[in-house]
Amino acid sequence: MTTATLTRIHTPTDYLVTRLLTDAEFAQLRAEALAQMPLAGTSIVDTLNPDADSPVHCLDTARGGPALTAFFGGTTTLAALERLTGRRWQWKHRSEYGLYNYYREPFHFCGLHRDTDSSELTVVTCIHHDPGPGGEFVLFPDRAGDTLAAIRANPDRGAVTLRLAPGESLIFSGRTVPHAVTPVAPGCVRITAPACYLACEETS
Ligand SMILES: [Fe+2]
Questions:
Q1: Measured between alpha carbons, how far is 172 from 169 in angstroms, rounded to an integer?
Q2: Separation of 196 CA from ligand 1 center, angstroms?
Q3: Is the whole-model pTM more than 0.90?
Q4: Minimal CA–CA distance to 123: which of 86, 89, 160, 97?
Q5: Is the pLDDT of residue 43 over 70?
Q6: What is the whole-number distance in angstroms between the Cα of residue 170 and the centre of ligand 1?
Q7: Higher pLDDT, 200 or 95
């Protein structure tokens, strides 16, 4: 297990783990994620298609509410991301709300992928993670130039495995750095809030 030690993102292959929320803000977000959990439905892609936007995955998702919208798009978060990267960002969302991801059934996972062009900066926040194996985030920052097929053929080389604590956010360039979430073990629940950002100069 490797811990990110950077305090700022300078290059597209840098990543860091930090806290973007106060304890009170995190408590609100966690409460909203748990309240939405019974409403979550399954998202599944079970066939590898290199041309598709979606990677092979199986997990449950539910729409977020005001707490998630305030976190993803709020001025505090955007200011923190600017401070950490030296660039200004805009939350990129397909609708007016974000999504919570629930890895709550045995072997829920997300396969190796890069994010689509709509996510230059990806922020994944851990809401909950039961003890036990699985549900780790695996990044390949040193293999940004490799094809996904090459990484699948040799998945141990350059793998950085991260297990976020509740309240921690992983920040990285999702379109540059290949990444995946390992299958959760039976009985292990992992809840995350993933968000995508585009640099303001790209959207202006
Ligand atoms: Fe991703």
A1: 10
A2: 9
A3: yes
A4: 89
A5: yes
A6: 11
A7: 200
Contact 174/116 with Cβ under 8 angstroms? Answer: no
Q: What domains, with CATH codes, occur in the chain? A: 15-46+55-203 (2.60.120.620)
pLDDT digits (tens, 9 = 90+) for 74-129: 999 999 999 999 999 999 876 778 999 999 999 999 999 999 877 789 999 999 99
As a whole number of angstroms, the distance between CA 184 and CA 192 comes to: 13
CA of 174 to the centre of ligand 1 (A): 6
In the block, which residue shows the tokens 């960002």?
Answer: 89
User: Nearest 10 degrees: CA dihedral of 198, 168, 166, 74?
Assistant: -50
Q: How far apart are CA 72 and CA 66, in angstroms?
A: 10
Phi first, then psi: what are they for 41, rounded to 5°? -115, 165
Report CA(115)–ligand 1 centroid distance (Å): 5
Q: Note whether 180 and 111 are within 8 A (CB).
A: yes
What is the 27 CA–ligand 1 centroid distance (Å)? 25
Q: What percent of the chain has pLDDT over 70?
A: 93
* Rounded distance from Cα 53 to ligand 1 centre (Å): 10
**pLDDT tens-place string over residues 53-81:** 678 899 999 999 999 999 999 999 999 99
Residues 92 and 149: beta-carbon distance below 8 Å: no
